[in-house]
Amino acid sequence: MSRPAAVPRAPAQPVHLVLGPPEHGVTRCALELHDTPALREQPVVRLLDGVTADLASALVAEGHEPGTPVHVHVTDRLLGRSAPEAAARLAPLARRWPLTVTLHDLPQPSDGAGAHERRARAYAEIVAASRGVVVSSHHEAALLDDALRLAGRPGLVTARPRAVIPLPVDPPAAPAPSDTPDTPATPATGREVGILGFLYPGKGHEEALEALAAQPADVGLVCLGRPSPGHEDLVESLEARAAELGRPCRVTGFVPDQDLLDALRAVAVPVAPHRHLSASGSINTWLAAGRRPLVPRSRYVEELEVRCPGALLVYDDLDAAVGQALEDPAVTWLGPEVVLGPGRDDAAQAYAATLADWSTRPETSVIIPYHDDQRGLDLLLDALARQTLPPGSFEVIVADDGSPQPPVLREQPYAVRLLRQPDAGFRASAARHLGATASTGRVLGFLDGDTLPTPDYLARLVGAVTTGEGPCGTLAVGRRRHADLSGVPAPEVLAWLADVADGADGADGADADHPGAVPRVLPEPGWLREAYAATDDLRDADDRSYRFVISAVMALPRELYDAAGGFDPGFVGYGGEDWDLAHRCWLAGAALRHVPEAVAWHDGADFAGRDDEDHRRVKDLETLRLARVLTDPLARDPRLVWPYPRVVVRLHVGDAGPGAVAGCVAGLLDGADAGVWLGDVDAALVQDLLGDPRVHLGEPSGEVLRRCREQVDVAAPVLLAGSLTELVDRGPVRTELVIVRRTRDLARHRARPRSQTGAGGDDGIPAMSSAAVGIRPVTDPPPLEAAWGGWA
Q: Are 510 and 483 in contact (CB under 8 A)?
């Protein structure tokens, strides 16, 4: 059950900032989309020169003040003389205008090693500055993921909303010419193979020219377009090579719109030979002219074939494809059976819906677990209203943990909702998970109901999450300080929060003339300060650093939260759920970060500093509760059997007998905090082994895999010279019989770009012989009776 306490002001319509000359494909795409019923009423700011123009001044001059959503179709070449310059021009704009972008010409390895890396870093900066990203194909989405990882910003893969909206393709403007000798489809001057668009190295003009060598002498090349800036010399080199081949070759320069259709239909063989397309407006232009272009096989082309079956002539050998098209010109024309799409109106409607969603969807959801403290909640919600983060960029969800009466939510400048769960004990973990499940933000922030943020708390903490450090996202924890707020009126508390954020000395204690008017500062836990100092604010985190994460002042990407499984609703009682989640986030590959500038003040002393009779009892109960789920070997007694083992072993049984299986399982479990899952086995063969709670059939569950520290795959029953614990402690191992991998390494490996993992998904573990690590196969096991009785 929930209700909004306030209805946020409707956001302004997005402004379309369209950059570049009208003949540029990206500019043309933006203008054509805007000239549709779905987008026509939205304002547009037009700049012919996006490289040198003052983007902010242009927006203000048109009456679009900071805070207005802005959408830009981006290719780095329209914004700067280099990719880094383009990113540097957009990032400051995004700090004042909520920016969404459509990215074109995605970085890819064909750019060349240095250029690929530079462009990847620049595009990552643009993504980091934006609130949402559109790409024009799923192929582009994959290229973007790889670029973000190459740039060292893989967390951005999931930190921004993303939509795939294909480039529009208009239906053919006129029917195909009759396929008769009396109605030629080519110019009388000869037969030409045509390529549309700007001329630049790598687009395929040279390849197409070479493909003409085997064709009749009258077959030439026509380049429908002009050279890209800086590549004017390409015209001369093409003409020189054509002369060597004895082939006609002409470059038309820019073809005006009124002449383009005739030019496209006059070509004998339309070709789009670029092998490294991310998406292609030129292919769509050929299709709109009724032509079926020759295109080399690629991931993007295969995607386009699925969307528009029969629209392309896909080749592996251009020479042969051109020859076949010259022999049968009809194949280069679209038939009535080919359905193209999406049309311009469909694409524009998708843009309108996507931009409307992004302009109203908060980037951040703040989840507050609550129980029967109306004054504290009022203070907290008022403190959130004073955040430097714009109110429209975050929502607040109050998750009530079974209070006798629901809290009253006053109207706020941000959206706020109430969710409730029944009283079934202290269930802060379940309340947090309830709020997270109902939230809509891409970043989840958790703030306890008795903890008040300083004005820049959210901006600093969310900023640490959205920078995208770490291949699997960043879990950020703020600085929780402590003060006694009792007896201090709410206005004074809120004013004090602003003062201490600005560095005032009011945090040191109450004014002698106004006792109780200023909160009294209480000590911070020294162990946390020391831990953050020793780990460089968790930049040097290790397998035990999850203990330095406090859910009262925490934020992380939604995708990381989901990958780790979220807060465990089964936790009942005080404490521990934050360590459990942080440990699973670490195993899911997350980076940890402490943000000391993100300060929030807890009303009361730290639990460790309290002088309660039940302190040790509460802490021992928390330790036992955590030992069930924390697979950290220093957090539990390995002599006991726990429901979630530290080590998951997948044993492939194959045709091994029961003696070999039993001996192997016993050896694996000897002295180890482990569980064994038996695959490819007749259940009857191992039925008696299943009485041991550590032995299972089939595959381990997702929850088990999220919590285990190491995963071991055993290809057949084996015997170990030492213990399984010794084997996993030595680190990743790969032999012909056994592979030992850390769960965290697996998660981070999956997040690496394909260019770094290789076609086989190389995880970087060097192979060695089984004998070198004390592993031998069970080839001729003795009878179990003899083995167990000691006479084998």
A: no
- Cα–Cα distance, 367 to 449 (Å, whole number): 9
3-class state of residue 687 by DSSP: helix
SS3 labels along 303-342? HHHHHCCCCCEEECCHHHHHHHHHHCHHHHECCCCCCCCC
b/e string for 124-135 if b means 16 or more Cβ within 10 A?
bbbbbbbbbbbb
C-alpha torsion sign, points 304, 306, 308, 311 = positive
Cα gap 144→387, rounded to integer Å: 32
User: Which pairs with CB-CB distance under 8 Å and at least 24 residues apart come from 633-640?
Assistant: 633/673, 633/709, 634/544, 636/673, 638/671, 638/672, 638/673, 638/725
Residues 47 and 20: their CA atoms lie apart, in Å, by 6
Structural element, H or E, at residue 9:
none
Tally DSSP H helices, then E strands, for the chain.
27, 29
Count the neighbouring beta carbons within 10 Å of the beta carbon of residue 172.
19
Determine the pLDDT at residue 510. 43
Residue 429 dihedral angles phi and psi, to the nearest 5°: -65, -45
Runs of H (alpha helix) within 104-256: 113-129, 138-150, 156-159, 205-211, 233-245
Structure tokens at 759: 């076609």
Q: Quick one: which H or E segment has residue 772?
A: none
Most distant CA pair in the chain, distance: 105
Tokens describing residue 782: 């003795």
Model-level pTM? 0.70
A 10 A CB-CB count for 356 gives 14
The span from the CA of 225 to the CA of 712, in Å, is: 58
Backbone angles phi, psi at 344, to 5 degrees: -60, -40
**Per mean pLDDT, which range of 373-382, 473-482, 783-792 is the poorest?**
783-792
- C-beta separation of 525 from 609 below 8 A: yes
Mean pLDDT over each residue of the chain, to the nearest integer? 87
User: How far apart are alpha carbons 4 and 440 in whole angstroms?
Assistant: 14
What does each C-alpha distance from 770 to 712, 723, 732 come to in angstroms?
14, 14, 13
pLDDT band at 101 (very low <50, low <70, confident <90, very high): very high
Helix axes of 281-288 and 257-266: crossing angle, nearest 10 degrees: 80
**12-42 CB burial, b ≥16 within 10 A, e <16:** ebbbbbbbbeeebbbbbbbbbbbebebbeeb
Q: Given a cut of 60, is residue 504 above it in pLDDT?
A: no
Q: What is the pLDDT of residue 608?
A: 58
Region of residue 281 (phi > 0: left; psi between -120 and 50: alpha; otherwise: beta): alpha
Degrees, nearest 5: CA angle 646-651-655: 165
Report the distance separating Cα 601 and Cα 578, nearest Å: 18
Are β-strands 520-522 and 474-484 bridged in parallel, bridged antiparallel, or unpaired?
A: antiparallel
Q: Residue 607 is encoded by which pair of tokens? A: 């639990």
Within a 10 A sphere around the Cβ of 727, how many other Cβ atoms? 22
Q: What is the 3-state secondary structure (H, E, C) of 71-134?
A: EEEECHHHCCCCHHHHHHHHHHHHHHCCEEEEECCCCCHHHCHHHHHHHHHHHHHHHHHCCEEE
Cβ-count burial 105-114 (b if 16+ within 10 Å, e if not): bbbbeebeee
Tell me the helix, strand and coil percentages in the chain, rounded to 5: 40, 20, 45
What 3 state SS string does 260-309 have? Answer: HHHHHHHCCEEECCCCCCCCCHHHHHHHHCCECCEEECCHHHHHHHHHCC
Sign of CA dihedral 127, 132, 133, 138: positive
Contact between residue 696 and residue 690 where contact means Cβ atoms under 8 Å apart: yes
Three-class SS string for 15-52? EEEEECCCCCHHHHHHHHHHCCCCCCCCCEEEECCCCC
In whole angstroms, give the CA distance from residue 117 to residue 150: 7
Residue 79 pLDDT more than 90?
A: yes
CA distance 706 to 696: 17
- pLDDT higher than 50, residue 321: yes
